[in-house]
Design a protein that fits this description.
The radius of gyration is 16 Å and the shape is globular. The protein is 32% helix and 29% strand. The N and C termini lie far apart (35 Å). It is an alpha+beta fold. Strand 2 and strand 3 form a beta hairpin. It has a single domain, classed as Aminopeptidase (3-Layer(aba) Sandwich), CATH 3.40.630.30.
Length: 124
């Protein structure tokens, strides 16, 4: 995949690393970021997405999440986007909304709100 105009072409690869419970993106063989997930009952709970600071601003997060969602779709799984980045990506790309288990997501949000109201910051 080509980078910005006038820059050299970089080799970008995205893959699932099930042992690390993450989709990983690399640039020229160097790990640039990951989207961490946990699988429960055929649902992929995306809990955290990160792009290393030296690779920020190159839309790698979007490429990573798109690949992950397409892969989950091929596996006929559903997603629970706990991670704000994944949730935001799905809002901007409504074609993935049908993959979201909204019932489970709503239960998690209610639980988080309850902990917040009780002064419990909840898990981090």
């Amino acid at each position: 995949m080509a980078t910005e105009q006038g820059q050299a072409t970089s080799q970008i690869e995205v893959f699932d690393d099930p042992e690390d419970h993450a989709y990983v993106i690399t640039v020229d063989g160097e790990r640039a970021g990951k989207a961490v997930y946990h699988i429960r009952g055929g649902r992929y709970f995306f809990v955290h997405t990160e792009i290393d600071s030296e690779f920020e601003g190159k839309r790698l997060g979007s490429q990573l999440v798109q690949f992950a969602l397409e892969d989950v779709k091929l596996k006929e799984g559903s997603v629970v986007p706990i991670c704000p980045f994944v949730r935001g990506y799905i809002k901007r790309h409504p074609e993935y909304d049908e993959m979201v288990d909204h019932e489970v997501l709503a239960r998690i949000e209610r639980s988080e709100a309850k902990h917040h109201d009780e002064g419990d910051p909840g898990p981090h």
